[in-house]
Automatic annotation (TrEMBL):
Keyword Transmembrane helix attached: yes
GO process annotations (BP): CAAX-box protein maturation
Entry's Gene Ontology molecular function annotations: endopeptidase activity
Listed transmembrane segments: 7-32, 44-64, 80-101, 124-145, 157-180, 238-257
Domain CAAX prenyl protease 2/Lysostaphin resistance protein A-like: 123-212
Protein's organism: Hoylesella shahii DSM 15611 = JCM 12083
A Pfam short name: Rce1-like
Superkingdom, taxonomy of origin: Bacteria
Keywords from the UniProt entry: Membrane, Transmembrane, Transmembrane helix
Classification lineage: Bacteria, Pseudomonadati, Bacteroidota, Bacteroidia, Bacteroidales
InterPro entries the UniProt entry points to: CAAX_protease, Rce1/LyrA-like_dom
Protein known as: CAAX prenyl protease 2/Lysostaphin resistance protein A-like domain-containing protein
Length: 268
C-alpha cells in the first residue's frame, strides 16, 4: 500500500515539476524580453528559446534524478525494424488524426495559434518543438509517469495506465484542441512504451510527427489557417484518397510494430 501511494505521489510530482519548469522559464523569458505585461507581443526568439531551455532543464533534471531511467540496452538490441515502422506509423497517422480532429469541430484559440506561429516562425522553432520537446515529453509522460502507473498496476490491465497517461499528456497542453490531439497521440505513444519498455520509439514517433508539422508550416504557409480539404485543393474525392493512402501506411505499420515489438529489445 505504501509503495502504491509513493507511485501516485511520484506521478503528481512529475506533472507539477513539468508544469512549473515550463511556466517559470516562460515568465523569465517574457521578463527579459520586456513583454511580461503583454505576452502576445513577445518576440518569436524569446518564445522559442524559452521552450527550448525549458525542455533542456526538464531532460537534465529527469535524467539526473533518474525519474526516467534510461540505458543503451534497447538500442543494443538493434531494433531498427521497429524504429523504421514507427516513423511510417507516425507519417500514416497524421492525416487520419487531423481528419478526426476536424470532425469534432474544435478550433484552436487565437492566443494558442499565435504562440505556435511565433515559435514555428523563429529560427529556433524546429530545435524547440521538433527535437527537444519530443525528448522532454517522452521522458516525462512515458519514461516517468507511465512507468510509475504500470508499476502501480503491476503491469496488469496496461490500457488503464496508457489511457491515464495519455489524458494527462493532453491535459498539460491546457486547451481543448490540443487536449484531443495530444491525448489521441498519447495512446499510440503509451502503447509503444508498454511494448518496448523504452522511450526511444516514442521519441522517434513524436519527432516524426512534429517534424512534419514544422515542414508543412514552412513549406506550405498558406495552409496554416485552413482545413485538411485545403491540402487537396478543395477536392473531397482526392482528400478521401489521401486518407485511404494514409491508412494503408498506418495499419500495416501498426501490424508490423505489434509483431516486431515482441521480438526486438523488450527492455530499457
Amino acid at each position: 500500500m505504501k509503495k502504491n501511494n509513493s507511485l501516485i505521489l511520484s506521478v503528481m510530482c512529475y506533472i507539477v515539476v513539468f508544469i512549473m519548469i515550463q511556466f517559470g522559464i516562460s515568465l523569465v523569458a517574457l521578463y527579459l524580453d520586456d513583454s511580461i505585461k503583454h505576452p502576445a507581443s513577445a518576440s518569436p526568439t524569446a518564445l522559442s528559446l524559452s521552450s527550448a531551455v525549458a525542455s533542456i532543464v526538464i531532460i537534465g533534471l529527469f535524467l539526473w534524478r533518474k525519474w526516467s531511467p534510461i540505458s543503451r540496452h534497447y538500442l543494443q538490441q538493434h531494433p531498427w525494424g521497429v524504429l523504421v515502422w514507427t516513423i511510417l506509423a507516425a507519417l500514416g497517422a497524421i492525416l487520419p488524426l487531423q481528419w478526426i480532429y476536424e470532425q469534432l469541430n474544435i478550433t484552436v484559440a487565437d492566443n494558442v495559434k499565435q504562440l505556435f506561429d511565433s515559435i514555428l516562425g523563429s529560427r529556433w522553432g524546429y530545435l524547440a518543438l521538433g527535437i527537444l520537446a519530443p525528448v522532454a515529453e517522452e521522458l516525462v509522460f512515458r519514461g516517468a509517469i507511465l512507468r510509475c502507473l504500470l508499476a502501480y498496476f503491476n503491469n496488469r490491465l496496461p490500457w488503464i495506465p496508457i489511457v491515464v497517461s495519455a489524458l494527462l499528456f493532453g491535459a498539460v497542453h491546457a486547451n481543448l484542441a490540443q487536449f484531443v490531439n495530444a491525448s489521441t497521440m498519447g495512446l499510440l505513444l503509451g502503447w509503444l512504451y508498454y511494448r518496448t519498455h523504452s522511450v526511444v520509439p516514442g521519441v522517434i514517433f513524436h519527432w516524426a510527427n512534429n517534424t512534419v508539422a514544422y515542414a508543412m508550416y514552412v513549406l506550405m504557409p498558406d495552409l496554416n489557417d485552413g482545413q485538411l480539404i485545403d491540402l487537396f485543393h478543395g477536392d473531397n474525392k482526392l482528400m478521401y484518397m489521401g486518407l485511404l493512402c494514409s491508412l494503408l501506411v498506418l495499419l500495416p505499420s501498426l501490424f508490423q510494430l505489434n509483431k516486431r515489438m515482441g521480438n526486438e529489445g523488450r527492455t530499457h
